[in-house]
Amino acid sequence: MIDKSLKSSIVVIGLIFLSNFLLNILAVLLAGVLSLKVSVYLFLFTFISSLLAVTVLGGFFTGLSASLLRLSRLLKLNNLTHPLLLRLSAEAPGTYHHSILVADLSSKAAKVIGADSLLCRVASYFHDIGKLKNPALFVENSKNEQNNQDLDLLENAKFIKNHVEDGIRLAKDAHLPQTIINLIAQHHGTSLCSYFYDLAKSKGTEGIRKADFRYKGPKPQTKEAAIVMLADALEAKARVKDNSSSIKDLVEETFADKINDGQLNESTLSERELFKLKQSFIKTLESMAHQRIEYTVNHKY
Question: Is 70 contained in some domain?
Fold first, then answer.
C-alpha cells in the first residue's frame, strides 16, 4: 500500500523532471538552431531546473525515504510471525483470535474511507499484546467469568486498564514502529471500563468516581486509531450475540456510545466517513457468520 506522502513525493518528482524537460525544449525553441547559443541556453535552463530540483526535492526525498521505510516495516509485521504475536497465539489464544477479527474489520473499514488499511490491520494485530502479562484475567482467555472476584471492583478495573500501558511497554521493548505504539495507546481512548463501574454502582459502593474507571487515553488522534477503537469494541460486543439480526443495532449503539462520550472528537472523522464506516462494519460482521460464545452482556473490555 502506498500512503499519501509517498504518492505526493512521486507526483512532485514527476513534475520536476517534466519541467526540466520542457525547459530544455524551450531553450531549443528560443535558439532556433543547434549552435553555441543553444548550448548556452540548454546549460542555463538545465542549471536553473537543477537548482529547483535540489531545493524542492530535498524535502520530498526525505519524505519518500521515510514512507518507503515505514511501508517496508509494516509489510514485514503483516505476516503474523513476530515473536509477540506468536506468544499471543500460544499464551492468549482468545485475545489472538479477537485481534485477527479486529484486523479484518478495521482494514476493510479503512479502505472504504481511504484511510491507511495496512496500518489498521497491523496495529490491530498488536493492539492487545498488553494482555500477555496476565491472559487469564481477560474473559476471552478464560472459561471462568468469576476470575478475580476476590479483588474489589476498582482493583479489577485497574488490572483491566493496565493492559494498554503494558502493551505500550512491550511494543517499545520490541522496537515496533511509533505509529503502532500510538494506536495501542489510543485504542481505548478515555473510555469507561463500564462493566466494573456499573457493577460498583449496582452494589452501592461508596465514593466511586467515574474518572477512576476510565482508561488513561489519549483519545484517538487519527482516523486509523478511531477505526481500530470502533472495530475492537464491535468485535467484543458482537461475541455475545447469538445471531446477526441485531448487528445493525449493535453498530449504531456502539457508534453512538463513542460519539456521545467524546471519544472520536479528535480523530477528524467526518459524518460522511462515519456513515461509510458503519456500513462497512455491518457488512463485515454479518459476513463473519461464526458461532460466538455468549459470555455476558456486560463485557469486560
Answer: no
